[in-house]
Structure formats: C-alpha cells, structure tokens
Amino acid sequence: MASSLLELSALSYECNGHRLINAVNARLESGTRTLLLGPNGAGKSVLMRLCHGLLQPSAGDIRWHPNPPARQAMVFQRPVVLRRSVLANVTFALRLAGVSAKARRDLAQEALHRVGLALLADRHAPTLSGGERQQLALARAWAITPQVLFLDEPTANLDPGSAATVEGIIHAIHAAGTQIIMSTHNLGQARRLADQILFIDRGSITEHTPANEFFAAPRSHQAREFLSAERP
Amino acid sequence: MRGDGKDTKADGVVSEDLQQKRTLIERICENAGMNDLGAAFIQAAHLLAGREPALLGVIVLSLRVSLSALLIASLIGAPCGALLAVCRFPGRRLLIVAFNAMMGLPPVVVGLLIYILLSRAGPLGTFGLLFTPAAMVMAQSVLIVPIIIALTRQVIANDWEEYAELLRSLGARWWQIIPTLLWEARQALLTVLLAGFGRAVAEVGAVMMVGGNIDGLTRVMTTTIALETSKGNLAFALALGTVLLVLVFLVNALAYLSRPHSAQHGI
Question: In DSSP terms, which residues pair with A73 in a beta bridge?
C-alpha cells in the first residue's frame, strides 16, 4: 500500500455565509488512526467530507503526498443500503471502483465474511438491522481495499453490542493497512481506537496530539472542558 | 325485460304503424331508464363470455396502442425525470414547473397538434400516419410523457437525497447514478407507469381526432364506448366499460402484489 500524507493548509468552508471550517492546518500521516473529537456542530463531519471530496473547499488546499489515494471510502452515521441483496450492495461498490466482473463476486463474499455477514449475503439489504447495515457499509468500504477510510460517527446509532462489533471491524481494517480518519462522541471508543486525536471546536483545530497525551493532559481549554463534561 | 311486443299485440285495435311507433318510444324510454342498466350488464356479460370478435379486436387494439405509448413515454420520461432530479443546470426549475403543468395537458389540444403535424399538408404528412394506430400511439405518448417525467422526478429526488453522499463517495458519475437511482426506485416507478397507463388507456379525445375511430382499424375501447353510447347501444358500451374497469383494477392489483413483502409494510 502506497504511503500517503494528507496535508490541509488554510482550509476553509463556508455555507450560506456561515464559516463552518475556519482556516484549518493539519498533517495526517498514513497508517495512523486519527479520531476527530469535538462538540456537536464543531465541523467534524464537514472536515471529513472536505477531505473525502464530497464538499469543495471555499478556500485553502487539501493535498495528498505523493498523490491522492486512488481508493478511499466513507462510512456514514446512518448507513444507506441499496434496495438489493447484501452481496449485490458490495459488488455494486466494486463495479464503481472498476473491479472486473469476474473478480467482484469473490471479493464481495470475502469482504462479507470478514465483517461477519457471510450468512446474510442473499438477504434483501433493507431488511437488515441497524447494526447489520453498518456492518454491510463497512464491508462495502473494505471490499475496495481503500488506502484511506473515513468514518462519520459510525456507532452513534448502534446498541453497545453492535458498536463493539463495528469497532472490531474498524480495528481489523486498520490492521490490514488502511489509514483511518473517524469522528466520534464516544470518548471510550476514542481511547480504544485512536493513535492521534484531532480536536475541533467551532471550525478550528485547537489540538492535534497523540491520543495518550491528549487523554492524559489536554492542552487546549476547549478539550479540557470537553473531557471534564464526560466525567461523572 | 318488458315490452317484447306481447302487451301491445293484445289490444288489436291499434294500427300496425302506431304500434311500431309505440314500441320504438317504449324502447327509447327504457334505454334511458335504470331498468336497462341491469339488462345491459347481463348483455355485457354475454358479450364478454361469448368472446365477440369485434369486442375482442377493440380490446386488443386498445392495449396495443396504450402499452406502446407507455413504452415510448417511459423510455423518454423516466431518464429525463431522473436527470431533472439529479442534475443542476440553468432553467431546471422552469422545466420542472413546465412538466408539472403539462401533466394536465388537454387531450383535444394534443390531438389537434398531432393532427396538424400528421395531416397531408403537415410537416410529417408524407408518412401517411394520420388515422392509423401509430398516430394514436403518438398522441398518447405526448400526453403521458409529462406525467412520467414529473412523477419520476419526484420519486427520484427523494431517493437522491438519501443516496447522494453514498453514490458520490463510491465515485459514481451521473451516467452511472441515473440508472442506479431508476433501479432503486423501481417499485415506486411501477406506480408512476401505472398512472401513465391509466391516463393513456382512458383517453378519448386525442385518439378520436388522430385515429378517426375507424371500425376494425383505429377503434379502441374509449372511442367505441363514446360511439355506442351515442347510438343508444348501451349494452355494448357497458361491456367495454366493464372490461376497461376490470383491466385497470387488475393492473393495479398486480403491481401491488408484485411488491416485495417489505415494501408493502413500508420498511
């Protein structure tokens, strides 16, 4: 897997006159798991969508070194599944990724197996439970072996059991060599998954530190407030 | 049925001529009355059970014309509707308003326009299509294309809101997005097609004008019903009316039953 580095310089995004991302600078190294933390409306989702290319920046640059990853994927808070079989959901993504018709089925089945949905391959995807849908979304993303995977609060709507399953899958995807960029509100999850923490408050990055440092001694007062609210 | 001549024969004083007139008046009165409705239904059932070739021909032509019109209108209307839902371009809103308004196109106006186009002196006159089933297919297609465009756009716009981020994240381009969304919305689009078919098969004015209602050639169910009713032949008209109703009911029932179990429960 080609190593890549994501560099944001003076990145801004405005929508209807509101500045949602305000001149952000950051360097995200390949191979790491970076977790985006911050209060609701801080701009975590917007920042990930900018990096993934779903939104166009109003100003500033997003640069990948040496070049943008040919394969990147995103998993959303509310998993959207197509109205077809579980397997067909995955082969659809593979087709769009330019995988040959012959290879799609095997790759899709393998991806479903890895996320634990192999037995549900023939089910009509809309009949899956919320947790299973998110597993399917992860299989769909993993099948194309992305260099970077963006996850926007992937466990926010799930029960603890399903959330643990999803965390396990994210762990495995990273272990297989994919860079993870993920937002969450769950501090426990951030502790378990993060190598780096990117703390965002009102469109600005106030802190970008290794996870152990962040949880031991947050530098910015916004992060300290955020962490203290969690404690009983 | 009353008045099969026996009562009037009994008073033999009346002259032949007067007797005939009385029978005629009686028949007209009966035709206008409720009595006849039941009788007509019975006659309709007989006609249908007897597989009357004239009746069958009319039904088959109706279906051929309206299904052809539906096919043409869907091939044009569904992709156009999806494009209007997904793509942003100048004049898009104007087009949406225009197609919504055109859902209510008056059939006689469409009939007139197609008539002018196809008439011997018209721009398409050389093809000699006026008073043929092809002209009727054209008229019905023109009538239902706006319906299919407008309804498809609504259906696809809802889905697009849900799928936009996923499809763009997967790297889909618009020419991949349009067929995907049409396939995803297939159940809802079936209802759209039914609405189009319903409008086409029930339409009288336009097909009457461009088809000419020629017996055995361009006579369809609706034009026959109109003609036979004006001739006082209510039984035949009612038979066709029944077929039309049953047909529309069956098509709708089939469409509903063909939906997957989950869709019926709104999942």
Answer: A149
- From the list B47, B58, B49, B61, the residue with the least C-alpha distance to B224 is B58
Q: Which residue has the tokens 């001694």?
A: A217
Residues in A 102-141 with any Cβ partner in B closer than 8 A: 124, 126-127, 140
B257/chain A closest Cα distance in angstroms: 17
Put simply, whether A69 touches B (Cβ < 8 Å) is no
| Dihedral sign (CA A17, A48, A32, A231) | positive
pTM as predicted? 0.83
Identify the H or E element spanning A5: strand A5-15
Edge to edge, the sheet with strand A148-152 lists A72-75, A148-152, A179-183, A33-37, A196-201, A204-210
Strand, helix or coil at A2?
Answer: coil
Per-residue pLDDT 10s for chain B (267 aa) are: 444 444 444 455 556 777 776 676 666 555 555 566 777 778 778 877 877 788 888 999 999 999 999 999 999 999 999 999 999 999 999 999 999 999 989 999 999 999 999 999 989 999 999 999 999 999 999 999 999 999 999 999 999 999 999 999 999 999 999 999 999 999 899 989 998 998 999 999 999 999 999 998 999 999 999 999 999 888 888 888 888 888 888 877 877 777 655 444 444
Measured CA to CA, the distance from residue B221 to residue A76 in angstroms comes to 53
B170 contacts on A by Cβ (under 8 Å): 73, 92-93, 96-97, 140
Is A93 an 8 Å CB contact of chain B? yes
